[in-house]
């Protein structure tokens, strides 16, 4: 995670320096401004990551698979979707529900991201 943060910050630094040069600034000013920005960004992002905490916990997931049988749009007929019902626990301990509907490709993309997150957490 720290290496990703470093690479992202370096990329932003190069982008900022390039934009400052394109805007007409010459000499060492674009490089110096980008350097200060990079140092500030690393410190700020680190503090934000340290201060962040999950506000809600995932308790349960229910899912339903469906196929569109009728629609005013001909292209939508026969398309597949997944409906998710997430049970979340907030700060006060009360459960609340969040409903999400995804196309099948978006569902598989979400599933892949969740599996990647799980694998990264298991490494920690």
TrEMBL record:
Query: Which BP terms does GO give this entry?
Result: negative regulation of DNA-templated transcription; tumor necrosis factor-mediated signaling pathway
UniProt xrefs under PROSITE patterns: COMM (PS51269)
In terms of superkingdom, the source organism counts as Eukaryota
Please state every residue range assigned to the domain named COMM: 57-124
The entry lists its GO molecular-function terms as: NF-kappaB binding
Stretch forming the signal peptide:
none
Q: What is this protein called?
A: COMM domain-containing protein
Query: What high-level taxonomic lineage is stated for the organism?
Result: Eukaryota, Haptista, Haptophyta, Prymnesiophyceae, Isochrysidales
